Amino acid sequence: MSASKQQFLDNPLGTKTTLEDVLDAFEFLDDWEDRYAYIIDLGKQLPGFPDDERVEENYVHGCQSQVWLIHHHDPDSGKLFLLIDSDAMIVRGLAAIILVALNGKPARDLLATDIDELFEQLDLFRHISPTRGNGLRAMVGKIRDIAAAEAAA
Amino acid sequence: MSDLSVANNTVTKAFDVEAIRRDFPILAQEINGKPLVYLDNGASAQKPLAVLDAMDRYYREMHSNVHRGAHTLGDRATAAFEGAREIVRHFLNAASTKEVIWTRGTTEAINLVANGLAPRLKAGDEILVSHMEHHANIVPWQMLAERTGAKVVPIQVTPEGELDLDSFNSLLTERTRILAITHVSNVLGTVNPIASLIEQAKKLGVITLIDGAQAVPHFKPDVQALDCDFYVFSAHKLFGPTGIGVLYGRSQLLEEMPPYQGGGEMIERVSFERTTWNVLPYKFEAGTPAIAEAVGLAAAINYMDGLDRKAMEAAENALLVRANELVETVPGMEVIGTAKHKVPVMSFKIAGLHPSDIGTLLDQQGIAIRTGHHCAMPLMDFYGVPGTARASFAFYNTLEEVEKLFTGLQKIQRLFT
User: Fold this and answer.
1) What is the value of ipTM here, to two decimals?
2) If exposure means fewest CB atoms within 10 Å of the residue's CB, which of A103, B50, B59, B210 is most exposed?
3) Domains in chain B, start-ordered, CATH in brackets?
4) B220-245 pLDDT, tens digit each
């Protein structure tokens, strides 16, 4: 069964859970344990991912864990909706942060979002190994490619 | 939480690990605000001052190109470089320095041999490897098989991570031409019974190559006693520099093999009509070699020779024993590779956690381990895991560090529950 439109619309990340929520929460997290506990909790908000979408076409290369990404472009609202899945909990959490910033936006708005600035604001890269950083960039790169294709369509 | 107090161990008292740690300057630093606990020695080991100083001194006082001979520095560099070869010969107990070839590392050494054995292979021949090999001891043989029509056949591994000897016995046949097998598994830590494997292979005239990359940091091989045809290792896992490794080869086979790369140093005479090869070992050493690195490797071996080997092995084993004792303090933790004869390497998984999660969260606590497939994807498939977390210990690790690893794992598990 592939993903229904409703599954995309039900994703709370970027809709119910906003970027302000995440930024506010991060401000109060001092040590690595609290920070990662929060990231892991965010990852638990990722909606279910349809099994039959775990195909090469939706695979994000460049991550140490397995990462899958699918999208739905809503013709009525012009917004781009995303679903991400991973078998690693921290990657799920980082994916959730990306979705909070980018999910449910028109493609042009998405392309205009400076995600690096957000990562800097969250001070994420200081705490994330270069390998993990590459995985993050791979996810963002794939999302931006999708947005660029939709914006051009 | 379980008690992680330091066990009173007489073995570590005899082996002064704190004094040894002072020889490794990199260990005295903090990572993410915590003292570094370096447990990724299987990927690459740290270097003692003796190695750093030897390489520094080489560049300050004696660097020049080798084997050119027109001036004093050239003679000094050549003496240091060939002196290093003699130290490696002694380390391996090879019969002659002609049998000690410098390579860039284990991987290049295996590629060199695979290339050199190509003329001996024909369609239908078999190359026996094992299911626990590093990709470096699989892929060069697959490439050789592709060229020659030979077939790469893997010896099975038992669930405990030991070589399945029944599988070996049934697969070693008159079709087998080459046995290429690891001395010690990089993932499991298993020490394979290579002496008896080589003995059986010899009876059928099979050429044998032993991948010693993970063995030499823990014990000294004796290539004459083993009676293998090739033995290969990298310097950087033996507390020496990166960029250099060793191929030991039986001189008769090396003589018969074609050169690997062409260029300077490996020739006797070059003309457009006919070029002839230099003698061993230079025939396989095209181009200016890694001179400072050879000097560094020799310094590493000398450093190791200054340690009490028996005490070192006992101390290493105490680390593994302690780690095994503590496994039950982390619910859901399962060790992959429980062979009877192991070096201090522990691959593991924890139910519900991805290895990369474990690695990231240990790093936050200053603890360095390896996560992933360890360049041994066939073995990962055998165990049905995407990868493992691996703590690999060296003689400079302490029992306290082993305990920190487990305290760290307990913390991680609390984060996820």
Assistant:
1) 0.86
2) B59
3) 10-31+308-416 (3.90.1150.10), 51-305 (3.40.640.10)
4) 999 999 999 999 999 999 999 999 99
